Amino acid sequence: MSEVTAQELEILSTKVIAAKEAAYCPYSKFRVGACLLTTSGEFVVGANVENAAYPVGTCAERVAIGTAVVAGHKEFKALAVATDVKPAGSPCGMCRQFIREFTNPSFPVYMYDKDGGYKIMTMDELLPDSFGPEHLSST
């Protein structure tokens, strides 16, 4: 997997922080933005969308991935997630498995805090010994 360039990281950073503004979170007040960098160089954003029936809400990461997949993208170079807390929030367990469906253990996830600082972790660090589509039998 190719590394994220400085220019791509700058764009990813700007877009993920801006994506928080689109969050619909009247209940938790916990804004989350996500931005995927596709292997073709496109950026796809998402934000969390809550619902009065709490389990029905959707996390920013899954919104971004779903949007990207519907647009025909299934290969990604990096994912960024931004929250309004410090230290930076990481993807929830459900999102970690969802992200893993379209990535591999070395895939980088950039997690931005309220001040714009970030931490990078791989999917293997976020979801050790993960299960992905390559583990399914083709028969």
Question: Can you walk me through this structure?
Answer:
This protein has 139 residues and is α+β, with helices and mostly antiparallel strands. The chain has one domain: Cytidine Deaminase, domain 2 (3-Layer(aba) Sandwich), CATH 3.40.140. The protein contains four helices and five strands. Strands 2-1-3-4-5 form a five-stranded mixed beta sheet. The longest helix is centred in the N-terminal third of the chain and has 14 residues, at 6-19. The protein is globular. The mean pLDDT is 95.
Any guess at the CATH architecture?
A: 3-Layer(aba) Sandwich
Shape label:
globular
* Protein structure class: alpha+beta
Secondary structure tally: strands: 5
Low-confidence stretches: none
Helix content: 25-40%
Cα separation of the termini:
28 Å
What is the CATH C level class, in words?
Alpha Beta
pLDDT average, as an integer? 95
**Beta-strand content bin:** 15-25%
- Count helical runs: 4
CATH superfamily: Cytidine Deaminase, domain 2
Strand order, main sheet: write it out: 2-1-3-4-5
Radius of gyration based on Cα positions = 14 Å
How many domains make up the coordinates?
1
Give me the CATH fold name: Cytidine Deaminase, domain 2
- Give the H and E element order: HEEHEHEEH
Please describe the biggest sheet, giving its number of strands, its sense, and whether it closes into a barrel: 5 strands, mixed
GO biological process, one term: pyrimidine-containing compound metabolic process
Catalytic activity: 2'-deoxycytidine + H2O + H(+) = 2'-deoxyuridine + NH4(+); cytidine + H2O + H(+) = uridine + NH4(+)
EC number: 3.5.4.5
GO molecular function: cytidine deaminase activity; identical protein binding; zinc ion binding
